[in-house]
Amino acid sequence: MDALSSAGSRPARGRLGALSSGAQAPAAPWARFSAWLECVCVVTFDLEVGQALELVYPSDFRLTDKEAALGTRSSASEFVSVEDRGAPGPPMTDTMTVGPPCHCRQVKDSSMKRGYFQKSLVLVSRLPFVRLFQALLGLIAPEFFDKLAPCLEAVCNEIDQWPAPEPGQTLNLPVVGVVLQVHVPSKVDKPDCSPLKQCGHKNLLPTPLVLSSVHELDLFRCFQPVLTQVQTLWELMLLGEPLVVLAPSPTVSSEMVLALTSCVQPLKFCCDYRPYFTVHDSEFKEFTTRTQAPPNVVLGVTNPFFIKTLQHWPHILRIGEPKLSGGLPKQVKLKKPSRLKTLDTKPGLYTAYTAHLHRDKALLKRLLGGLQKRRPPGALAALLRTHLLELTQSFVIPLEHYMASLMPLQKSVTPWKPLSQAPPQIRPFHQDDFLRSLDHAGPQLTCILKGDWLGLYRRFFKSPHFDGWYRQRRKEMVRKLEALHLEAICEANIETWMKDKSEVEVVDLVLKLREKLVRAQGHQFPVREETLHRAQLNIEMVIGSLPKDLQAVLCPR
Predict the structure, then answer these.
(1) Cα dihedral 182, 188, 194, 198 in deg (nearest 10)
(2) Which distant-in-sequence residues (6+ apart) come within 8 Å of 171 by Cβ?
(3) CA-based end-to-end distance of the chain
(4) Model-level pTM?
(5) Do residues 497 and 414 touch, judged by C-beta distance below 8 A?
(6) Over 60: is that where the pLDDT of 194 sits?
């Protein structure tokens, strides 16, 4: 996935997610910085007034009241650790309202009513580079808490010297005496490729700290306590089911939620998710009410109070304290919701859901055995990620094949029915027809797992993920048809078509062709430069064949 495709570009600084209007100007101050981050915030927590923004840098950056609350609620509002902990945040997108990456610190202070002071360093960005921002916070947070504002200014100036995050590029990013080497993902990257392995850095001093990914979490590390239930959790994520993750810390909560939402890649996760949700969040009443069904949200929490208030949610994952001595962590068990207690609830996946697919015992044996034999964590992480990727692909490929069969044949895309008519329409998606096609083109062709695949597809059709996938694929197909139709028009002999057409029909052609050209030039559908050029020449030729008065109307000077 091209990580920058949804983030877009920013010609000028302004409010988070908003673009300044006007013509493009020369590079503005902090232009390179804003290609990576919107701003860096320092948040303090006061027992009486709650969280408050202490500092925003660069100082000219403006946060709205809503954005300020967004930036603080994931950090200091309900922190339960004893000392430094980083709480990584999820991708910042136009449709999600979730917390950014932050690093929190608590220090004992007898002068404070609560017995300690609490402060958070928060990175605000629209890029989904979770791993990079984790590493960045790990480097700059200790320096900041030691040297405060001057350190923050120096770090931001260093980031302002970084090259732009161009997809497909391997970059060296210097900060606080360390060089981070990263590869910016692009659409052409293969899931199992590691571009950084081929990137030499013998001449760089200091030797770079190489990040294997800027956006992918270590799924094996995140899923260690739930390996025996990972396939059930994959199904719940695939179906967009409401799920509460009750974890011992914001870090574990955030990483587990992000790992869960990423385990269905390459399918886009279309539901909401909150890596670290607290009682101070504005949706607290909405999520805890029992008067309506829980929303399709993955909720990460740390306060045991939520066991009682969210007891009506259909799926609750309780995670225990991480094992510090290494070795095989205790695996959570599948438990009935009726066994859910308050406060002292034991670790487990509390759900009445029954998995549709049989568990892959061979994979589980390899993962748990590898952990016991202390195999390299990277190898186990790659094994788990590959399994989940192939499982999702096996599920999606039949959908893709059936969807492709709904596309009109290219030979039916002709300009002669009539020339100014819209291209042929995509046939509707009939769920029963698709299910019948699974007999000869189902997931069994690429996946060895047995089970009720039909039942899984039937539930998937009711999920937000099917709706999101179908809308996106249909949009892409419509754009392809538009491109084919424009190419057909440009390759047609328009002069021959015009011979028996009225002026009204010819003018209608000009208007339709102009509309298509504008959309194509705006990259609303993919066409070659040659096609754009021919379309422009055809428009000029058709207008030139009309009377002078109509030419003046169509091409006013």
Answers:
(1) -80
(2) 162, 163, 165, 181, 182, 183, 184
(3) 45
(4) 0.79
(5) no
(6) no
